[in-house]
Please model this.
Amino acid sequence: MSLAAALLAAPVGRSFAQGQDAPAPLGLYAATRSKLAPVDVSEPGFSVEVGAAFASGAGAVATPEAEPAKSQPTRPPSIRFEEGSRPTGETLQIPSYARKFLPDYMDKAAPDTLRALNSSTTQEMAQQLADYFKRFYPDVVYHVDWDDETVNAYAWMENGKRHVALLGGLLRHKAIGMEGIGLVLAHELGHHYGGPPLYSGSGLSCEGQADYWGASVGMRSAWGNQYRTQMLSAIDQLDKFFSKGLVSELTPEQELVRHKAEGECGHPPAACRKQTYQAAMAGLPKPACAGPTEPSGQLVREISRPVFETAFN
Model:
């Protein structure tokens, strides 16, 4: 069975963020366990078995008879690029009003932190993630620009269409794996679906709200019962990315001053973003440092899966 066929044949689960049917990750794993083609990658976090789950060690091979150990979490499936879902021959033009994952003062990679341009497996993984999230949020145009050196991701509206973009400098960063990129992508989707507070005139959610929605709803919708494993790894990766993987022009104290000066929609300091991810994972309200919380608490109630009270034990 091809991977594209496996996507269509896999069991579905409810996407409670939109109320639509969406493929269940573990169902995809079961549908594609056989006929594996291992891909060796130098970094453990990027060992991939094409057509099955992301493995924990380079070149690991599963067999049709080998069931995953119940005591260990199963990594998300590798989903091959769906033909026709990516425009060809087009140059990505990101408008100046697009919202960025990283603010201007910290969007440069630290020395020797980017993988080589020929890291084909990492490139494939990024496109697979975009294709996978598209199954849950199909009314978004997804862009993966591997050749762009910019360390960032973007969200914007153009001609009535929602867009998100992942750029090469971010995707190739050594501090970030599949889980971290998934959380960044969920953040960008959060600009479109996160609700108030909003950027004036754009209809896009503010940065703190996008962080919270991405971690609480977007990631849960995509990963289901793998959510906890995904989030723990993603938070750890982004924490290292913020603290050691970037060149910031501001100190943490200056970040806080700037955030207050920008108002409720500005980028929260890195420490606050981590706190926001943790609160979202535990089903807690958005921290005050991430901006005002919607009074009705609708977003918290929207999380219908069990709260992971022991998430950080």
Q: What stands out?
A: The longest strand covers residues 161-167. Residues 153 and 166 are 5 Å apart (CA to CA). The radius of gyration is 19 Å.
